[in-house]
Write a sequence for this structure.
């Protein structure tokens, strides 16, 4: 496969712009990856080269990978088109059967944050996770971002103390500084701004609404984001609206890039230099499908993904509960990649407490117990959150009590939590299951219903 000689690829070992510190951290990163059978510089270069190929060549790559993963002699894409999409409950059943793989060196167990209201623990083949990372770095490389560069992350941290410590150590190893989503305030924003000014991050990776709140806190304190020297901001994990993009870009004085992906299969799209969100069909194959399951080349449909690497429980047409618009290849950036624009994504909100604290609602998804299949939490007022819960096991009442205990503890005892078992929680019109509804979005009718349900539960 020909490699462009005039453009440095993200896996290149040396770059004249790199500092000795960046080379040190890049070396640490790849050393750690070798120990865990993770991504290598050659894999990143291969992913980058594939994304420069004409679309028919990329389609051949997808075809070959499907055949290799599933041991097919027939056309991989024809086989794939005949497979019914699978949802999270089906994958959960498969993962329960794969529990015996927990100690295998080839398997990495991960867990979604429950952003759709349906958390999932799943096994991932290390070959697949390595290629997921390769695609990420190849896409980030379009904007000059490479392993080892100092960066700031506005994201959540696990609530478990041991896991938090592990994540903090990892942040240091990755040359990264983090503002915990659940500790956001005027004071922590000011302190983190000062840390960033000393640290000089090359780029920022963030939830857009979280970063927007940070920007507002900094503007209120006359802190100038241009002083930080950030080269690019990469936003993901939720919907990036135009107003938020403008505010972030104005504050930092740099481009804001939107990415779209999932914990299960990695990065699916990222915006190119021209601002077009291109599909990245190297580690996984994203499709936009019609109601009858046929793959679309143009138009709006449901998003499903298929893993292209790994022998352990690869996903096949896995439903993300998203809708998106797909457009045929053709962009001024020169890449022959389709464009996929999600119609709706997560737009995170904040929990408001009686003391005036604003707590990022992702906290609920980070701390939900394993025994819950789905949930939707409503903030009825500043002192009450009412949750509709679909248990994943028979011990529904016990799970609800554990969920209530965890959430009330994380909210500092300021907000009471009430849970009600329901048989199902319907998605929104977009197809996404919104897991938190803030006070501003709870209708009067719904508020009366929730209060009545909570009162009845208390009386019983």
């Amino acid at each position: 496969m020909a490699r462009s000689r005039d453009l440095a690829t993200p896996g290149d070992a040396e770059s004249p712009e790199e500092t000795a510190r960046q080379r040190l951290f890049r070396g640490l990163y790849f050393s750690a990856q070798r120990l865990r059978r993770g991504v290598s510089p050659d894999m990143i270069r291969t992913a980058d080269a594939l994304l420069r190929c004409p679309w028919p060549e990329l389609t051949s790559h997808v075809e070959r990978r499907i055949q290799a993963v599933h041991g097919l002699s027939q056309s991989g894409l024809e086989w794939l088109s005949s497979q019914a999409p699978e949802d999270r409950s089906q994958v959960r059943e498969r993962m329960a059967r794969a529990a015996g793989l927990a100690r295998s060196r080839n398997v990495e167990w991960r867990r979604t944050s429950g952003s759709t209201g349906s958390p999932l623990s799943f096994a991932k083949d290390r070959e697949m996770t390595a290629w997921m990372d390769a695609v990420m770095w190849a896409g980030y490389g379009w904007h000059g971002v490479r392993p080892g560069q100092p960066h700031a992350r506005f994201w959540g941290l696990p609530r478990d103390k041991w896991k938090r410590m592990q994540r903090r150590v990892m942040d240091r190893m990755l040359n990264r500084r983090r503002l915990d989503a659940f500790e956001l305030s005027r004071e922590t924003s000011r302190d983190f701004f000062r840390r960033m000014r000393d640290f000089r991050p090359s780029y920022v990776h963030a939830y857009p609404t979280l970063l927007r709140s940070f920007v507002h806190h900094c503007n209120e304190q006359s802190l100038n984001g241009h002083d930080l020297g950030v080269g690019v901001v990469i936003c993901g994990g939720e919907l990036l609206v135009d107003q938020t993009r403008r505010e972030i870009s104005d504050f930092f004085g740099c481009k804001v890039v939107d990415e779209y992906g999932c914990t299960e299969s990695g990065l699916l799209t990222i915006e190119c230099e021209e601002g077009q969100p291109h599909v990245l069909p190297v580690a996984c194959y994203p499709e936009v499908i019609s109601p009858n399951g046929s793959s679309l080349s143009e138009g709006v449909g449901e998003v499903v993904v298929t893993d292209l690497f790994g022998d352990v429980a690869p996903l096949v047409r896995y439903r993300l509960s998203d809708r998106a618009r797909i457009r045929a290849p053709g962009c001024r950036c020169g890449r022959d990649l389709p464009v996929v624009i999600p119609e709706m994504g997560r737009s995170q909100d904040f929990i408001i407490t009686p003391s005036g604290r604003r707590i990022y609602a992702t906290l609920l998804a980070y701390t939900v117990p394993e025994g819950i299949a789905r949930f939707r939490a409503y903030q009825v007022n500043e002192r009450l959150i009412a949750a509709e819960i679909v248990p994943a096991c028979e011990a529904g009442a016990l799970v609800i009590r554990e969920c209530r205990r965890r959430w009330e503890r994380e909210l500092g005892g300021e907000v009471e939590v009430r849970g009600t078992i329901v048989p199902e929680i319907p998605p929104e019109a977009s197809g996404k299951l919104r897991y938190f509804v803030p006070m501003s979005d709870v209708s009067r009718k719904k508020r009366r219903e929730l209060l009545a349900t909570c009162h009845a539960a208390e009386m019983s």
About this structure: Confidence is low (pLDDT under 50) at residues 1-9. The first strand starts at residue 107 and ends at 111. The first helix runs from residue 20 to 35.
